[in-house]
């Protein structure tokens, strides 16, 4: 399906990725710690006996700077930092454990970074053995980690598998040497092939590859090679991320010559070519940036209407709360969000005092909760049903946006609900924006988010 230059120019505007609502720029710079602790305890008791909780650990260290990356990371080759960092995370975990009324049931766990496989298998085993010793891991669980193909060893994979990890995601990004050079991510394809094979031999249920389109020097020929290289190992899932160019927050991106970046029209062509190649190969288009084989749990969750989206991206678990540990980690307890201190020094300082390291956050109103659900429904289901009680707010903010989106054939809608069209799937973030009351009502919209395309 061709997308006109006119539509690209109209909708290629800065928009959040909607891993939360309200989005982080609209959170408060300070948070009421007592209120956060009280609501955490309340939400834990509501969720733990039902579906359990989700746990995220942020491991920020990398040996080398990938200049395209917008994550919170610390570049070092000194592996002595592992010991202290893991000790502090365990101390933070113990502080949260005092707020829990019973043993936590950990149904979902994800390790992100940074580079989680910067840490030795021995250190990873020690931290999770400690956490699991005072927790319950149900038979049905989703444990995943992000592995760097250049430094993930078979021992990493074996150790984490024996701890209950059943899913791994590898950052492939792009397989072309000229693109790898400019983003400082030199990574031979054979490294990707090797670690995927190891995961399968060991017994992992699901292997994901992360690809990025819109990187410097990418064109249709190069992205086709990358995608074919990825398809050659038949991953269970593929995350096809749009490169977010945000040099005002990620200083390393200032090293790029912006004339090397694909323009909006080329970037849309890259996305459309990727979508065609994935679907032709038998993958199901899940939504904003994910594809999966028809047998994958993510497809089943989408078909059953239980797919969820949070700070970890799309997930099949509906635990109702996410606890983030580590520097800059974000927790989501439904009633509110909280983010940890963003520098390692500040994070260490707070945790060593026996305090929670949360520094900013937001407590949701009923209106916020309603808008968040509509955004989740659009992103996860491609449709939404409107509640009568929300109509006054929807008529004021959402309906004018939906009317414009309908003119461009992105949605079909009435006062009962909406459905995203095939063309609209190219612009899911723009459709989600219809329910972003914070953004729509802001007098001044800062240059905070990456562009939609």
Structural overview:
- The chain is α/β, with parallel strands linked by helices.
- The chain has two domains: 1-22 and 366-453, Arc Repressor Mutant, subunit A (Orthogonal Bundle); 24-325, tm_1862 like domain (pyruvate-formate lyase- activating enzyme), CATH 3.80.30.
- It is built from 15 helices and 19 strands.
- The strands form five sheets. A nine-stranded mixed sheet has the order 9-10-8-7-6-5-4-1-13.
- Helix 5 (154-162) packs parallel to helix 7 (189-202) and helix 8 packs parallel to helix 9 (264-280).
- The two termini are 16 Å apart.
Please write out the topology.
Blueprint: H1 5-11, H2 33-48, E1 53-59, E2 61-62, E3 74-75, H3 81-97, E4 106-113, H4 121-133, E5 142-147, H5 154-162, E6 167-173, H6 177-182, H7 189-202, E7 206-213, H8 220-231, E8 237-242, H9 264-280, E9 284-285, E10 290-292, H10 297-304, E11 308-310, E12 313-315, E13 322-325, E14 330-332, E15 336-340, H11 344-352, E16 358-363, H12 366-381, E17 383-385, H13 391-407, E18 411-414, E19 417-420, H14 428-432, H15 437-441
Parallel strand pairs: 1-4, 1-13, 2-3, 4-5, 5-6, 6-7, 7-8
Antiparallel strand pairs: 8-10, 9-10, 11-12, 14-15, 15-16, 17-19, 18-19
What can be said about this structure in brief?
With 453 residues, the protein is of the alpha/beta class. 38% of the residues lie in helices and 19% in strands. The protein has a 9-stranded mixed beta sheet. Strands 14-15-16 form a 3-stranded antiparallel beta sheet, with helices on one face.
């Amino acid at each position: 399906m061709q997308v006109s230059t006119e539509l690209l120019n109209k909708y290629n505007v800065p928009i959040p990725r909607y891993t939360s609502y309200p989005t982080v720029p609209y959170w408060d710079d300070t948070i009421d710690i007592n209120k956060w602790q009280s609501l955490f305890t309340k939400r834990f008791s509501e969720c733990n006996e039902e579906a359990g909780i989700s746990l995220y650990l942020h491991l920020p260290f990398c040996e080398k700077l990938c200049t395209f990356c917008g994550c919170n990371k610390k570049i070092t080759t000194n592996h002595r930092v592992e010991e202290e960092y893991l000790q502090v995370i365990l101390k933070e975990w113990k502080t949260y454990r005092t707020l829990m009324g019973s043993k936590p049931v950990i149904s979902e766990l994800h390790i992100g970074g940074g580079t989680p496989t910067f840490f030795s298998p021995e250190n990873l085993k020690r931290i999770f053995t400690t956490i699991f010793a005072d927790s319950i891991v149900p038979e049905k669980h989703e444990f995943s980690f992000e592995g760097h193909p250049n430094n993930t060893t078979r021992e990493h994979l074996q150790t984490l598998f024996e701890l209950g990890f059943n899913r791994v995601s590898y950052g492939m990004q792009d397989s072309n040497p000229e693109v790898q050079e400019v983003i400082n991510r030199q990574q031979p394809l054979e490294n990707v092939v090797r670690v995927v094979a190891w995961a399968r031999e060991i017994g992992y249920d699901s292997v994901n590859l992360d690809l990025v389109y819109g990187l410097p020097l990418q064109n249709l020929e190069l992205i086709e090679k990358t995608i074919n290289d990825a398809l050659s190992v038949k991953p269970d899932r593929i995350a096809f991320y749009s490169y977010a160019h945000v040099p005002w927050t990620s200083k390393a991106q200032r090293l790029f010559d912006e004339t090397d970046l694909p323009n909006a029209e080329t970037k849309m062509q890259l996305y459309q070519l990727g979508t065609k190649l994935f679907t032709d190969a038998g993958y199901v288009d899940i939504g904003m940036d994910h594809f999966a084989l028809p047998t994958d749990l993510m497809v089943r969750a989408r078909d059953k209407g239980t797919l969820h989206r949070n700070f970890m991206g799309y997930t099949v678990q509906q635990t109702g709360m996410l606890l983030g540990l580590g520097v800059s980690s974000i927790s989501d307890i439904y009633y509110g969000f909280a983010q940890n201190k963003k520098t390692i020094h500040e994070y260490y300082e707070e945790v060593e005092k026996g305090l929670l390291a949360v520094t900013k956050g937001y407590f949701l109103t009923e209106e916020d909760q309603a808008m968040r659900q509509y955004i989740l429904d659009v992103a996860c289901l491609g449709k939404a049903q409107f509640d009568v009680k929300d109509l006054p707010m929807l008529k004021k903010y959402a309906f004018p946006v939906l009317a414009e989106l309908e003119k461009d054939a992105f949605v079909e809608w009435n006062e009962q609900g909406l459905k995203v069209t095939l063309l609209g799937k190219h612009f899911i973030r723009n459709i989600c924006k219809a329910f972003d009351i914070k953004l729509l009502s802001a007098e001044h919209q800062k240059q905070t988010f990456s562009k939609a395309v």
